[in-house]
Design a protein that fits this description.
Layout: H1 2-12, H2 23-37, H3 39-54, H4 66-95, H5 103-124, H6 130-154
Helix pairs in contact: 1-5, 2-4, 2-5, 3-4, 4-5, 4-6, 5-6
Keywords: Membrane, Transmembrane, Transmembrane helix
GO biological process, one term: regulated exocytosis
GO cellular component, one term: lysosomal membrane
Amino acid sequence: LCPCLIYGAYIFLPFDAPLLPTVSARLVYTLRCAAFATFPVVLGMIVSGISRLCSSALEPFGELHREVEIHRTYVSQSVHLFILYFFNMAVLATYLPQELLKLIPLLTGLFAISRLIFWMSYAIGRSFRAFGFSMTFLPLLAMLLWNLYGMFVLEPENLLS
């Protein structure tokens, strides 16, 4: 489903990436796009804090209620996945040709939407969370494989430079 969504958005959404000839310009562009990917994480932190305040726990270090635990787990996992996403996206931006830089905001949007889908499905039941997690993890895995391919096959002479 993820490749179909990315391909459809790439073909049908009417925007193009700006001209980014240098690596530093591409990294700044990636950083700006990654700021939008933090939206689900920040939203999860806010909801987690509110649910913790509204819980009826008398001991702050005691056992958490299910609602509080769901939000805390979501925020923790989202922060870890965002770090992996950001570093892979930064490396990906250095290897993509100019005409494919449109993928950077599309992958950012997919990350944000899939984290929100994971959060909603995790709140419904733990058995439903696989769809949202796979929509987050599989594009991340594809980026990692492309980055390794780019580093070791396309440009092995520039691996450490």
